[in-house]
Amino acid sequence: MLLETVAALATAAMAVQAAEPATSGTWSTLAGSTGSLCIHSILLPDNQLMCIERPHTKPVESPSLYPWLNPNTKGTTATVVQLDTQKGEISFQPAPVKYNAFCAGHSQGADGIIHVIGGDHSASTTLMDASSNWPMQNKTDAGTFLYDGIAKIRTFDPKTKTWDESKDMTTGRWYPTVVTMGEGSVFIASGSLKNLDFNDLTATNNPTYEFFPQRYQPAIRSQILDWAYPHNLYPIAYQLPQGKIFMMVSNRTMLIDASKDPGPAGQENNYEEVASVPAMDHQPWIYPNTPTSFLLPLKESENWKVTVVLCGGVLISAKDASSDCISLTPEIPGAKWTPLPNMPHARLMPDAAVLPDGTILLTNGAGWGQAGGNAGDCQFASAPVFPTDLYNPTTNSWTTVGTSTIPRLYHSGVVLLQDGSVITTGSEMQNYLDFWGTPDAKGVGTEMVNVTRGVKQQCWPSVSDNLPLGAGCTDPYEYRIEHFKPAYLSGTRPVIVAAGLDGSKMTYGSTVGVQLSASGAAIASVSLARYTTTTHSTNTDQRLIVPSVLFANSTYVVFKIPPNGNIAPPGNYHLFALSKDGTPSVAVRVLLGDGAVTAVAVPTSGSTVPVATTTGTKSAASVGLSAGVVLAGLIGLAAALSI
Ligand SMILES: *[C@@H]1O[C@H](CO)[C@@H](O)[C@H](O)[C@H]1NC(C)=O
Ligand SMILES: *[C@@H]1O[C@H](CO)[C@@H](O)[C@H](O)[C@H]1NC(C)=O
Ligand SMILES: *[C@@H]1O[C@H](CO)[C@@H](O)[C@H](O)[C@H]1NC(C)=O
Ligand SMILES: *[C@@H]1O[C@H](CO)[C@@H](O)[C@H](O)[C@H]1NC(C)=O
Ligand SMILES: [Cu+2]
């Protein structure tokens, strides 16, 4: 981020400052295409987004040229999308994967390395062109074109834009959950041994978890994952601040001590079960009933208390979407799942973005049905939900803050960007219109899919159909990105002096100082928003870290990086400075990780603005220890500091 750009944004923001503070944000559609469908949306540095799709098995734009492939990627299913929210446009370049990553799990790890783990097995390696290692373009039946990826561990390095697909798990996993742990290794849970068919529940259960790098062989069998089957796909899981892994499937919750040896096969001596979800017309709280989950902001002033929230999903009795939200503080012994206020709009498959001011945006999803389905075939869900809801944990209340226009049903996502705005991505089989008739249509009856209902339920004709190609169909692949500017972007923004700071490494426990431009709004708080990877309403990466401000004046702020990766797992974060009204700066990228602890001096006088966040006794003590001490290791940051 160039300094000029930051200054220009601040000036633009000040120009509109005179208006009444807005309570609603604005949606607009960015020009251009993501190239591949963002079933998997992974934020990369420099306003780039990795999108991964399933291999197309239905015709797309140039059916005569590439009968079964996405011509944008020649079937290799991944693109890096360049986002330009100021110009309102996007562009893409292919980032080919060789091993089918459809419905993999993923997380951002140490040094910003992306892990994409598991995926789909069906593959036709004989159809790979040996000379180019790209799929052949004359396949005539529906299948996939990539090597078997169901057991694959892929890493993507955003710096070199290259994949390493050389490693494997102990077993195959389709729909696994992947969590980057505090010390940087990866926890990989559940998934199915082949595509799950609820009408044929044979030989698909994989109720195990494992680690990368590998720790145990075979993988550890979990009694609760086994019990929950088939409701154990994309488990809800997080690294917790005090060190354990949170995992919830169906309606049961466990805390895993990953540092503890699980014992001989079948013993599983390393977990405790905590609160089960109360009985509601809502079980199970997982795929395909698909709520979303997120963590409330973790604050130093609250000693990093963690709260897990689940919102939305399906009412079992009617297949209507639910507006329920429930929360749990899993590190407080004896805590129970308790209701939060209902969302203004019921939805299944919602997506959540935790914003820099600590509010949570809920968007996307459907009003009826369930998750799942094949691109081009019938929707399992209908009645897309367009209103956008915002939860404020401080007031424990919801408001509706906008209305989007693009349906985001199965295989969608939401991502917070560096400038404090939000994008929505993905959604497959958009031809719900053709099946259900109107955007407001709601499925009738109780069956999941009735393939004989209606005349257009099979939108992309199979070879045996007599219909012309694509007759009466909408494109089942949504390549557009919609962009939301929250109301806070109409306020005057603080301005972080980015020169030398953007991309710098910050080590756990360090006391850091960041320069601000006096031309921006006065700063009252800072927050660190972890880069997002999201799929299937699951986002194990997303969390907002709110350090206490130790010193702030109009040109300088001092705060402390959390003491370890359990609170803030390693990887890239957006560092935001916020005004007292909660208007965020444009963020700079900082890379949290291990290393020598450094500390800038905390000025004891000369503060020209009140410090909004009170400093807890814990951090005050550590400030005393570190004040005046500047250690080596902050080379990237030093240039930006007045030291
Ligand atoms: C398919 O294309 C490949 C080259 O990409 C060619 O070698 C092969 O003969 C073709 N097969 C058929 C059946 O046309
Ligand atoms: C949890 O889910 C199981 C399986 O669906 C169900 O039998 C049980 O009643 C549920 N427990 C509660 C408390 O709702
Ligand atoms: C599916 O829909 C058709 C047409 O409405 C109806 O005749 C048929 O009974 C339905 N099938 C089932 C299993 O409900
Ligand atoms: C803010 O504090 C820093 C550190 O004490 C100091 O160098 C700087 O001059 C102060 N800025 C203003 C505008 O007072
Ligand atoms: Cu999927």
Write out key terms for the chains shown.
single chain, 643 residues, mainly beta, Immunoglobulin-like, 6-stranded mixed beta sheet, 5-stranded antiparallel beta sheet, 5 helices, 42 strands, 6% helix, 29% strand, disordered C terminus, binds 2-acetamido-2-deoxy-beta-D-glucopyranose, binds copper (II) ion
Q: What's the mean pLDDT score?
A: 84
Strand order of the largest sheet: 21-38-36-41-42-34
The geometry reads as globular
Structural class: mainly beta
Number of E strands: 42
Query: What share of the residues lie within helices?
Result: under 10%
Tell me which ligands are bound.
2-acetamido-2-deoxy-beta-D-glucopyranose, copper (II) ion
Termini separation: 22 Å
Domain Galactose oxidase-like Early set: 493-590
Protein name: Galactose oxidase-like Early set domain-containing protein
Signal peptide: 1-18
Keywords: Signal
Structure, described:
Strands 21-38-36-41-42-34 form a 6-stranded mixed beta sheet. The longest helix is centred in the N-terminal third of the chain and has 13 residues, at 3-15. The model is unreliable at 1-21, 138-142, 444-458, 460-472 and 610-643 (pLDDT under 50). The chain is mainly beta. It is globular, with a radius of gyration of 24 Å. The protein binds 2-acetamido-2-deoxy-beta-D-glucopyranose (4 copies) and copper (II) ion (CU). One 2-acetamido-2-deoxy-beta-D-glucopyranose binds at residues 250-251, 276, 279, 283-284. Copper (II) ion (CU) is lined by residues 103, 411, 536. This is Galactose oxidase-like Early set domain-containing protein. It comes from Chytriomyces confervae. Residues 1-18 form the signal peptide.
